[in-house]
Design a protein that fits this description.
Layout lengths: L25 H17 L12 E4 L2 E4 L2 E5 L4 E12 L2 E11 L4 E11 L3 E11 L4 E11 L2 E10 L4 E10 L8 E11 L3 E11 L2 E12 L7 E2 L3 E5 L3 E13 L2 E10 L3 E13 L2 E12 L6 H6 L9 E13 L4 E10 L4 H4 L1 H4 L6 E11 L3 E12 L14 E14 L6 E12 L5 E2 L1 E6 L2 E6 L28 E2 L2 E11 L2 E4 L2 E16 L6 E15 L1 E6 L8 E20 L44 E17 L2 E17 L13 E8 L3 E10 L4 E11 L5 E9 L14 E11 L3 E10 L11 E10 L6 E9 L5 E9 L21
Antiparallel strand pairs: 1-2, 2-4, 3-4, 4-5, 5-6, 6-7, 7-8, 8-9, 9-10, 10-11, 11-12, 12-13, 14-16, 15-16, 15-46, 16-17, 17-18, 18-19, 19-20, 20-21, 21-22, 22-23, 23-24, 24-25, 25-30, 26-29, 27-28, 30-32, 31-32, 32-33, 33-35, 34-35, 35-36, 36-37, 37-38, 38-39, 39-40, 40-41, 41-42, 42-43, ...
Amino acid sequence: MDFNLDKRPRAPYNSSGGLGRRTGLVLHRWIFFFSFLAVSLFADTPLWAAEAAPTAKIHGMLINAESMFGDNEKDTAELEGKVQIVFQGQHLKADKARVYRRSRQVELYGNVEIMDAKNTIVGDQVFLDYENNTGVIYNGYVQSGSVMFAGTLLQKTGESEYIVNTADYTACTNCPASWSFSGTTVRAELGGYAYIKNAVLRFGHVPVFWLPYLIVPLKSDRQSGLLTPNFEVSETGGFAFSIPYFWAISRSSDATIEAKDYAKRGLKALFEYRYVLNENSNGSLSAASIFDKAFADDPRLNTYRPAGERNDPIDRWFTRYNHYYEMPDGGVHRAQINLASDLQYPKDFPEETLNFGDSAMENRVSYTKNNQDQHYSVDSSYYVNMLHGNPLAGNEDAVHRLPELRFAQAQKNIGDTNLIYSLDLTYTNFARSGNAYDDMEEVIIDGAKVRFPKNTCHSPKWEDDPNCKRIYDGTYDPSIDQIRTGQRLDFRPTLYYPIKMGEGLDLLPKLSYRETHYNFNVEENPYLVRRYLRTELSTRMNFSRIYGDTVSSKATRYKHEIVPEITYSRLPWFSQENHPFFGTGNLSDAPYSSRDGISDLDIGSDFGVQFDYNDRVYDRNLVTVSLLNKVTEKRWVGDRPEYRQIGYLKLAQSYDASQEGRSTENWSDLTATLDMRLDHFQTYSIFNYFPYQNVTNASSRVRLLNDKGQFFQVQLTRQYKITPGQPVDTSTRQEDYTFSAGFISRYINLMGKFVYDANWAEAENGKQIKSWAYIAQYKPPGDCMLITFIHEQVVGSDTRFKLNFEFNFDGTPKPPLPPEALDAYGFY
């Protein structure tokens, strides 16, 4: 069995002999060797001349000992007392030695050490054929870097080949070793592999695992082989055991093939392929498949299955592909594929799909090319709707962009004038496999109009009932049905004329024309054209001051800037016919601002839901006032200046004059954006205060950290559903507090995170803690091993406990996991 324990470069380390005897520092060994050689070869009087120690040279060997005796008849030399021999890059030390000049062999006795640039041999006795570089070591060890073999009898069969009897093998720097393998026989090639018979894994002195045969790598290059096993326990899957196999396909590609056996789910096959195309281009392909016995009993699945199919296992799978390629022509090819057999797969296996909690699985392929002034792109996006109640629901209602073509001309001066122009041209085809439109129906609930797909139960929650079926009546009703497919061609040229009025005062008038053509896949009113002009005038002032030492050229300095800005945007001309695609309301009454998003509430509004944000005409007569504060630090790293923005605060609010006489809510929400990035304090926060509803939406993160990588973080996510002109229902808000922390020490790394639901009383499950996870890493002494425990509770799912062992051969402690590692465990 081939256990590939690690694939990173290894660094040399100290030892004190056997698994308990190690030599001195490698640096000390080199200094001693070169000092001895240099003095011996070039000095008039060697260092040992003070004690009158004899020196001789035999067959190119430089020999030094307290006493030497030569037998010319037997052609031997007897050496005693601090014996040192230098020969062909090797330095030999012993208490006694006998040199056989005729057979070119040497016998070394007592405290024997043989050192060269790569290896160290230590033993009680060593018989060495110094011409063939072979020999026998008794009660000793061989050390190369951090790899060491010890045994009662070691046979040196070549330059780097050894056969060891009653052997011990480890790569740990401590004594006793944190882990080791013992075997009856070990055949090892330093820089290659070690083949161990009757291998016993020991932690300290305790045997824990036996294998009849084991192969381990003794080189830092990537190599094929089995990785250490992983263990997992979960409520749904039960106990799971996995064995990964690493396949070093080539220098630029490799793969991991894994078999994972769940006690309750069954056997699962996993595969991950990785490749590098050039210095900046790479990709990966991941896939898995399982005939899931546990999922067969899932209530969510069986609720929607026919009675004859319930509790039958099904084949589940996923595929994820990421690709980035910088092509020779200067273009960039990107691909992002994420597909699964069912909609619950991301919930059951969040670390595989990496999109648990998303409303859709996005699949995207694109080609982009940029030059100094222009941008070209071809883009296609395929979406999988994740919001169905039935985990095996089809994807006929998802709308895709197949394709999207774009050309953009960056801002460029017209001739030698100060007049600047830009251009944006985009074509998008919105398509889906189902109907071109949605048959809709309306009901009044609590005085509000609710629109939803037509179904047999006439209920907006029809997907929660397996007996409810969606209805397509085959007739498009423009008064209520929702157009979902079509083509859009959007053309937008813009002219700018920047004016500098004086020191710190800038004006930017802008004029843009936009023309959008629509072609809908319906029989009634399939064509539509929208045209308008937009004028915009921005004025801003910049007040700044430099703080810090202004005398020294390399002193750290800070620049504080205050930038007030007023922008007025207006549509002096607008041309568009009324069309059901834009709802039944008067287009001039649409309360759209450039900061408004699209939400489910728009489905029931008089203005409906379009393809995306670009279909809205916003900021028709809008004044926006903003105030920006920012601080920039300039510091020197060596002879190079380094700039970073350490503080940013922006306040902004708009007044919509187009709503005068139509609405009492002319002022927009007040937005505050705070971004601070200091050495030990970071925060990024966005607050939106809605003055008419008197509520604040917030997304805020505050992190404290130190130079050791330890941190503490608090995050707030609070979202109210805002409908202009209507009061806010605070019971439907999302308000989550996320606490996370990380602790790093010499032997233990700890990191944890949990999400507290402040609105838990209104939640369906009534739980205060939505999700949690922690990671504990134990680093035993010896810099050769890492034990990782992971315990997690996925949102709305069961708990998982994971355990894996990672052997480290390089002698360098692994860096701690980044705080972002917790995001893979069911958080969103």
